[in-house]
Amino acid sequence: MAPDQRPMEDGIVRDFKVNLSYGRYLHLDEILGAQHPVSVPEHHDELLFILQHQTSELWLKLVLHELRAVQRYLAKDDLRPALKGLARVKHIQRTLTEQWSVLATLTPSEYSEFRSFLGTSSGFQSYQYRAVEFMLGNKDRRMLSLFDDDQSARELLVEALETPSVYDEFLRYLSRHGHDIPAEQLHRDVAEPHHFDEDLVPVFVRIYSDPERFWEAYEACEELVDLEENFQLWRFRHLKTVERTIGFKRGTGGSSGVDFLRKALDLTFFPELYAVRTEIGATS
């Protein structure tokens, strides 16, 4: 054994005819074999492009898993594990946002070498991303038509559309804990997007004006604000990466590209949690 090598300990498992191996547990053959560049001749940088989007989809799968749990916990008045789930989602969001820095190393000339081979495929068609937006309250039934040829994706989106959002469940939680949530919010059509309700603002003014009394609700409000802010940072990094790579070309999926992405920056999930900031400490 060379002096700079560690000894191979006797207890290390070597026989995987019966024992479960790392590769089999993770199905690495399937995962590592799932990258299929379409450029001809195959362009070196297409692997980066594929892996960027595949890893994003894996993280989005975990976000959906956590948000479903958050919805269930809120519905059961079990706030602490719900907050733990939101905290995990926030860390995933940071990872997703940082990933854009890797894709940003793809220069316009490099991307142009294989972009035409992508056809009409586009990140706009990510059904998991759309499901995350639905679960956070930005619901849009029109998006279902993009997935008419993918039954499983459409079913996932219909479920997310017709299930109370995280914000819906939070408002119901607040109502059960003595806060005066407007009845129309408690009985609204949850398949429709949430719109700003000025009658909700006093509820949050009460919470923010007495955080010691309403600490758990206060903490949950701030977790939701963190989550939305992270989402906006992700959108912004997406916008700037696209602008850096293709300028103002149209998107491969038919959108206007950068202009379309810029409009998403105006979307908000929890408008009353931002409106309350104007009211706190304001003098009449």
Explained architecture:
There is one protein chain. This protein is mostly helical. The protein is 58% helix and 0% strand. The chain has 13 helices and no strands. It has helices at residues 22-26, 28-32, 46-75, 79-103, 108-112, 127-136, 151-162, 166-176, 183-186, 201-209, 215-246, 258-264, 271-279. Helix 3 (46-75) packs parallel to helix 8. It is globular, with a radius of gyration of 23 Å. The model has no long low-confidence stretch (mean pLDDT 93).
Q: What is the chains' assembly state?
A: single chain
Shape: globular
Averaged pLDDT, please? 93
- Rg is 23 Å
Strand residue percentage: under 5%
Number of strands: 0
Helical fraction equals: 55-70%
SSE succession: HHHHHHHHHHHHH
Secondary structure category: mainly alpha
Largest sheet descriptor:
none
Stretches where pLDDT is under 50 for at least 5 consecutive residues are: none
The N- to C-terminal Cα distance equals 79 Å
| Tally of DSSP helical segments | 13
Topology:
Elements: H1 22-26, H2 28-32, H3 46-75, H4 79-103, H5 108-112, H6 127-136, H7 151-162, H8 166-176, H9 183-186, H10 201-209, H11 215-246, H12 258-264, H13 271-279
Helix pairs in contact: 3-4, 3-6, 3-8, 4-11, 6-7, 10-13, 11-12
